[in-house]
From TrEMBL:
Pfam family, one: YitT_membrane
Top-level taxonomy: Bacteria, Pseudomonadati, Pseudomonadota, Alphaproteobacteria, Rhodobacterales
Main location: membrane
Keyword annotations of the record: Cell membrane, Membrane, Transmembrane, Transmembrane helix
GO cellular component: plasma membrane
Stored InterPro entries: UPF0750_membrane, YitT
Superkingdom of origin: Bacteria
Localization (cell): Cell membrane
Bilayer-spanning residue ranges: 21-43, 55-77, 84-102, 114-132
Topology within the bilayer: Multi-pass membrane protein
Protein name per its UniProtKB record: Putative 5xTM membrane YitT family protein
Length: 206
């Protein structure tokens, strides 16, 4: 039986290809977090909620991000299968590790919010596309977005952008207008990249 996660006659990535893809994707996402934190911005999805809670509570982003993703693994296991769930669990764990380690080896002293938004949006978009193409995501809304795209044909980028609008509506009550506007611009770049580059009819291999 062909899974809805993979088009007919698709050639699977090897274990090594999946490994390097997940490493590259999570490093790009961890770099995105560094850009966001250096410019005082937030983002959408679970990562955005994690950043908001991290700013408000003082708890490290890595710990908050990992814990908030745990309930979504049940959805992933039921709807997407064990391969996707294991890859996603590994991706979330690796990103948590990279976001914990990166500040000890790099420090961004000055970053204009607009530059931060653009750089974060591009690195997040590239990182998520790499993860999606290797059958993983970073949990949360990404799980639902991947399932809807692969089973219903609804583009993952648009699903995530819709959720992000809800996140930023909440953020508007916690952050100033400029911060929300810059952050929304970065999230829009990410989701436009995903919507235009992650397409089942062009390239998806598992």
């Amino acid at each position: 039986m062909v899974s809805f996660l993979e088009p007919p006659h698709a050639e699977r990535h090897s274990a090594f290809e999946d490994f390097q893809g997940i490493v590259v994707g999570t490093v790009l996402m961890a770099l995105c977090v560094q850009f966001l934190q250096a410019s005082g911005l937030i983002t959408g999805q679970i990562a955005g909620l994690s950043l908001t809670l991290s700013y408000a509570s003082g708890i490290g982003f890595a710990a908050v991000f990992f814990v908030l993703n745990l309930p979504f693994y049940v959805i992933a296991l039921i709807r997407m299968g064990y391969r996707f769930t294991l890859k996603t669990f590994a991706a979330v764990g690796l990103m948590s590790l990279w976001t914990y380690l990166l500040p000890s080896v790099m420090r961004i002293e000055t970053l204009h919010p607009l530059a931060g938004a653009v750089l974060a949006g591009i690195t997040a978009g590239a990182g998520l596309i790499v993860l999606f193409r290797h059958g993983a995501t970073l949990g949360g809304v990404g799980i639902v977005a991947m399932w809807l795209q692969d089973s219903k044909g609804i583009k993952a980028g648009w699903v995530q952008l819709g959720f992000d609008l809800c996140v930023f509506a909440l953020a508007a009550s916690l952050f100033d207008a400029a911060t929300v506007a810059y952050s929304l611009a970065g999230a829009a770049i990410t989701n436009i990249m995903i919507a235009t580059n992650h397409r089942r009819d062009r390239y998806i291999a598992r």
